Amino acid sequence: MEDMDKPRIRVKVERKEGEPTAAFKGASWAALIIGASAYAIGLFNASMELNEKGYYFAVLVFGLYAAVSLQKAVRDRDEGIPVTSIYYGISWFALIVAISLMGIGLYNAGSIILSEKGFFGMAFVLTLFAAITVQKNVRDTQRARDIEE
Description:
mainly alpha
């Protein structure tokens, strides 16, 4: 009982200016791992042909690359780092194509039921968003540490 009467001492973790909190970094990584794992487990358990599974896996990998690439290009431009217009345009185009391929694939998928289509769509969006957030956190952390040095 005596321990409850004592004041608690909190140790403040030093964070650099502009660095995301550990909780935000952890939540971003958790969302990425959960989204990608759920998508992969869903594909593994889906009753579709192997070539269909390959299509959906390739679309996820393409979408992840396109989303991170676009996030980097947008951030570079915002910070005054040179980004060619062609790369910037290709990054947007690639993300739009990846999302379109996912949507078209799910719309035309006759071998899976509507609830599975929703599951794959949501896992796809969660994973893309989480990948963008993780990449942003990595960059913010690196920048905060570079400023300190």
